[in-house]
């Protein structure tokens, strides 16, 4: 599923993002306090900073490559939005039941059961969808109803993060393995030397963004799978 890139002015081509992005080797714990910045930086051990958030895609002047970069951008940025929602929903659960930032889903579930001890509460898993079953159903307090909805949204977000993981890795790997070929294609397509320099610069920036997306997408997927596996264990089912 590729997106066509329409001709833009030189300024727009240099700066306009093709869509959005994820986290690098340092993400927050599985259940931990919300943040909604579309892009920020993480400090690295060597003192440098690595971008974290939505990725951009600049025009390189080769339609097929522009479509591939746009596809990576759209797919990754959607995954990043789903990852942020997953983080937000589990942090909401932690805050609502006064859990510690690093608490697991199982610890949070125990506190939910302790607070609503007049109800039988069970985490259920069907396929990759988990939910909070509560009985009796006719006397569920509002707080617990909100928690049920919260858990449902958490499940949906985690499943969405995992669902595009393989596609992203394949797209990114194909592009990164063909770096020399891509540079040659862009160089040959450029009408002037000045345009060649600009478009090759755009290509190199796109490759850096794809590399970042590949790394961070994998990390998001690992975290989402960890959450789904924990939900499976709590429900007695292997997802």
Strand fraction equals 5-15%
Rg, Cα atoms, Å: 22 Å
Distance between the termini: 28 Å
Going by helix content, strand content and strand pairing, the class is: mainly alpha
Please list the strands of the largest sheet in the order they lie side by side: 1-2
Number of strands: 4
Oligomer class: single chain
Largest sheet, in brief, is: 2 strands, antiparallel
Shape: elongated
Whole-number tally of structural domains = 1
The helix content is 55-70%
In DSSP terms (H or I, runs of 4 or more residues), the helix count works out at 7
Mean model confidence by pLDDT = 83
Strand-and-helix sequence, N→C?
Answer: HEEHHEEHHHH
What would your notes on this structure say?
The model is unreliable at 1-48 (pLDDT under 50). By secondary structure, this protein is mainly α. The protein is elongated, with a radius of gyration of 22 Å. It has one domain (10-235). A two-stranded antiparallel sheet has the order 1-2. A two-stranded antiparallel ribbon has the order 3-4. 59% of the residues lie in helices and 10% in strands. The chain is built from seven helices and four strands; from the N terminus they run αββααββαααα. The relative contact order is 0.17. The two termini are 28 Å apart.
